[in-house]
Write a structure and sequence with these properties.
Shape: globular
CATH superfamily of the largest domain: Formyl transferase, N-terminal domain
Number of domains: 2
Helix content: 25-40%
Structural class: alpha/beta
Order of helices and strands: EHEHEHEHEHEEHEEH
CATH topology of the largest domain: Rossmann fold
Largest sheet: 7 strands, mixed
Number of strands: 9
Strand order of the largest sheet: 3-2-1-4-5-6-7
Strand content: 15-25%
Bound molecules: glycinamide ribonucleotide
Length: 211
């Protein structure tokens, strides 16, 4: 199984994937931002990096996505992992990798798609927040859910404190989901439903840390 990881910034989810000893050959890390801190981390771990600066393509999303697809297909990736890749993708790109592109989002989808999820969760007064790994569909931060982890929202939480608690769980569930995919135990069926085998279902049934 060959995979690529797409990043735009810090790269902590990327690092969690690269360090998880998954049965996956991570062929490249691709960033749309030349300054993404994750690029140095990837290089330090011996992974090839590619920069595809979206600014070069201006408003032409289709041209950027075509260049991105060319890079992904050049390395022969079976799986595309979006890990803090902050670009809206064209429908054509998403459909090209349908069923083999995963994303991690810092909220319990379908609640709080988009940006600033932790501040919005606090403003909404929810008592439980968390993160989601899902297959990517054309709608942003939507798509069939693979696994979620919940964290409690505490009385004195700030967006930063809540984000840190959620991020620790992101680093737990994203490698889990990628392992399931790599082992052929995770499928997105024709009926639109995600299926995992029984052992995966037991492992990911309720990820609910205490603090
Ligand atoms: C992560 O919290 C990830 O869930 C989020 O961006 C952050 C990237 O951090 N992704 C989204 O909001 C996607 N809609 P990282 O670069 O340290 O992994």
């Amino acid at each position: 199984m060959r995979a690529v990881i797409l990043i735009s910034g810090r790269g902590s989810n990327m690092e969690a994937l690269l360090r998880a000893n998954l049965p996956v050959d991570f062929a490249a890390v691709i960033s749309n931002r030349p300054q993404a801190a994750g690029l140095d981390i990837a290089r330090g771990l011996g992974v090839d990096t590619v920069v595809l600066d979206h600014r070069v393509y201006g408003a032409d999303r289709a041209a950027f996505d075509a260049a991105l697809a060319a890079e992904i297909d050049r390395v022969g990736a079976d799986l595309v992992c979006l890990a803090g890749f902050m670009r809206v993708l064209t429908d054509a790109f998403v459909m090209r990798y349908r069923g083999r592109m995963l994303n991690i989002h810092p909220a319990l989808l379908p609640a709080f798609p988009g940006l600033n999820t932790h501040a919005r969760a606090l403003a909404a007064g929810v008592k439980i927040h968390g993160c989601t790994v899902h297959f990517v569909t054309p709608e942003v931060d939507a798509g069939p859910i693979v696994v979620q982890a919940a964290v409690p929202v505490l009385e004195d939480d700030t967006p930063e404190r809540l984000a840190a608690r959620v991020l620790a769980q992101e680093h737990r569930i994203y490698p889990m989901a990628v392992r399931w995919f790599a082992e052929g135990r995770l499928h997105w069926g024709e009926d639109g439903r995600v299926r995992v085998d029984a052992a995966c279902a037991a492992e990911g049934v309720l990820i609910s840390p205490t603090g």
